[in-house]
Amino acid sequence: MIGFWTLFSKEVLRFWKVGFQTIAAPVLTAMLYLLIFAHVLEDHVRVHGLPYTAFLVPGLVMMSILQNAFANSSSSLIQSKVTGSIVFVLLPPLSYRVFWAAYVLAAVARGLVVGVGVLAVTAWFADLHFVAPGWILAFALFGGAILGTLGVVAGIWADKFDQLAAFQNFLIMPLTFLSGVFYSIHSLPAFWQQVSTYNPVFYMIDGFRYGFFGVSDVSPWTSLAVVGVCFALLAALTLALLQRGYKLRM
């Protein structure tokens, strides 16, 4: 446990010491999304009977959690690989499970800190009810853990920053932006509704939003089941890669 807490603390301090970039900047970005979309659509759109701003805020909070959880673990690993400092993490007698847990939990921590920051600055613009706080916490933790684990995979796979940027631009961004953050999938044509159900991030956003208002596009239990299975499969894949030392041990 000493090794775990040391690595976990290192990863938390890494983003905390540059909080203006890793915390304040994402909060500002989410604030700009809210101001722009709410200003344009507030008087014209209602979703599930909710004002558009109220509908939008939970989606922005969850999107910020997911994107920052991914960014934390992926950027830390690729930076360590590029600079060669990864050797100082691999040399100590840490098991691959400890390695994975420390990076993922630190990613979840950053995601939650940013999410709370986004919620604090956007809640002033919407009437939020917090109908089921347990669902909010469950999907925030699962979502952060999934994207943190995916960040570990990206950091292991990428050999340079360009490859990591491609992973983020062509996978993470489309998955998060096309997941119902800004709209209900019931507003889409039938074909695109069906396509959206294959996006695991949709279930994270939808379940998270259910915790605020008690309304969602699909059952929160269905969302939780999908998210849980995705986490289990992705964690198993990542642990297998770490056990083999894929692209980490030469």
Q: How are the SSEs ordered, and which strands pair?
A:
Blueprint lengths: L1 H15 L2 H23 L4 E2 L2 E2 H32 L3 H4 L5 H27 L10 H25 L3 H17 L12 H7 L3 H14 L6 H25 L6
Antiparallel strand pairs: 1-2
Helix pairs in contact: 1-5, 2-3, 2-5, 3-5, 3-6, 3-7, 3-9, 5-6, 5-10, 6-9, 6-10, 9-10
Please indicate the count of domains.
1
**Major sheet size, sense and barrel closure:** 2 strands, antiparallel
Helix vs. strand class: mainly alpha
First CA to last CA: what distance? 27 Å
* Spatial arrangement of strands, main beta sheet: 1-2
Number of helices: 10
Shape: globular
Mean pLDDT: 90
Q: Could you tell me the number of beta strands?
A: 2
What share of residues are in beta strands? under 5%
Key descriptive features of the protein:
250 residues; mainly alpha; two-stranded antiparallel ribbon
Notes on the structure:
The protein is an all-alpha fold and about 250 residues long. It has one domain (about 1-245). It contains ten helices and two strands. The chain has helices at about 1-15, 20-40, 50-85, 85-90, 95-120, 135-155, 160-175, 190-195, 200-215, 220-245; strands at about 45, 50. Strands 1-2 form a two-stranded antiparallel sheet. The longest helix is centred in the N-terminal third of the chain and has 32 residues, at about 50-85. The protein is globular, with a radius of gyration of 18 Å. The mean pLDDT is about 90.
